[in-house]
């Protein structure tokens, strides 16, 4: 989800709720302690220089169990971040503490924001010698090449 998308969704909500992909909700007394833009310059294992930009939200739970972040307040935090940091409209990455700091993509299911699990990947598989995935086919889908197949009594076998 891009920053522009969350800005369109928030005005229609009564509450801001985040949920992990496994269904567990982020406690409703969470804080958004950071909104910023992260720029990552790196080189992949194939030698290609890459640059990624994401808008970063950091969620944090404190002991103030009565705290509730309202949609208007989150919009004002986003606006302040855009004005002061000149944040671009980019994909949102959410940091949230579980066993360790996790980084999640953001989605919306119509009611709550969903923290989608991220996975690592090789960006230069062809340069690393990683074979491309083979397609699984059932034997019934395979057709015999008549010119290269043996028939009984043909002498080819």
Structure, explained:
It contains three helices and six strands; from the N terminus they run αβββαβββα. With 157 residues, it is of the alpha/beta class. It has one domain. It has a six-stranded mixed sheet, with helices on one face. The protein is elongated. The protein starts with a helix and ends in a 29-residue tail after the last helix.
Quick synopsis:
With 157 residues, the protein is of the alpha/beta class. The protein has three helices and six strands. The chain has a six-stranded mixed β-sheet with strand order 1-6-5-4-3-2, covered by helices on one side.
How is the secondary structure organized here?
Blueprint: H1 3-9, E1 18-20, E2 30-43, E3 49-61, H2 71-85, E4 92-97, E5 101-108, E6 113-117, H3 125-128
Parallel strand pairs: 1-6, 3-4
Antiparallel strand pairs: 2-3, 4-5, 5-6
InterPro entries: DUF6428
Pfam families: DUF6428 (PF20001)
